[in-house]
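pinging the channel bc i need a second pair of eyes. not urgent but kinda urgent?? the chain im working w is below, pasted from the shared doc
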Amino acid sequence: MNHRRLILCLLLCCLPMLIVTGQDVTPTPPASIFATNTPTPNPALNTTAYQRVVVYAGPGTTFQQVAPLNAGVPAVIVERNATGTWVRLQRFDQGNVVMDGWVISAYLNLDPALDFGTVPVNTSLADADLINEPSESLQRLLRVPVIPQIDPAMTAVVQQGAALGNDPHGVTKVGDSTVANEQYLQPLGSDQIELGAYRYLLPTVDWFRNSAAQSSAAARVGLTTLVIFDPFWADKSVCQPNETPLVCEYRLKRPSVALIMFGGNDVMHVDEVTFAGQLRRIVAESLAAGVIPVLFTFSYNPQAELWPQAVNLNLAVTEVAAEKRVPVVNLWLAARILPDYGLDVDQIHLKNSGFGFIKFTGGNEAFYGVTLQNLLALSVLDEVRQFMLSVESAS
């Protein structure tokens, strides 16, 4: 009996150690989060927020808010999403996990030695939680991952591109002014690049930088999915008579990959059926040329008059990608966290950082649309590069 009383006393005495109070402490983490009581020994994973931030149950603002994290409070990075724009943090007290959730990595004081390439990638959580979204259309958009996995169907495209003599290091851009922007990928040609924790992308930067630094005959101000097939819009200084901008660019550069984004102009001129039909044609001509077409959704302001049509066009992008089994980058979803959705004052173009070079340090990817666009482009190109190398090694 005395032994039983002693054990009971010990349990009651230790119980308060498991209860932690404070402003930024969360209740029991959601079932989707698997906590560990052992802090990581890697000092580069230790971090603090430079301002008070919201902690979410998953890598996106659509997930439940778990707790706030005050500036300067130590936490440990456990894992990240596909790009590193969101990281999962744990906070410890006397060896016990007292906070567990996801924050935007741009709001953290990251160790200069941190490389997201060494941080585990969470593959179990989606990029969005649909539970609080009543719109079926928006649910369909939210289901599309920000960064895709490359479908095995692209194996034949890689092989065909090699047979046609396409440049394995060649990438080009196809689209309107948001794609023709000189700050989109072209600064890769500069020696001044700050990748910071995204240094895991350096092999991909080196792989594509020469071609990415070039302008594209298939990316112009005012271009739409309709006129991309009109020779009138071709650059007469480099394109042949009666050659369309798309055919011209593929002939000139012989790329293996094309990053394709339309929407800002199309939303004002075409319906979703026409838009989807034109996208299918772009994809078909790309595949025939041995080029992997990577489609992008586009950011748009929900308060804008044409918001419903922008949603329809973005859905068309995802549906064509699924139908043709080509990669699609959900820029629309990723840009939800940016001020003004990453858009400039005209609410059409993406906002430039003004630095004039690729700079992923200082949290710019969470404040400027073009910086995020560059990061997502390099992230998907990293997936494509590794896929191409796997096809080559299997041949």
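so Residues 1-37 have pLDDT under 50 and may be disordered. and The chain has two domains: 24-118, 136-394. — does that match what u expected or am i reading it wrong
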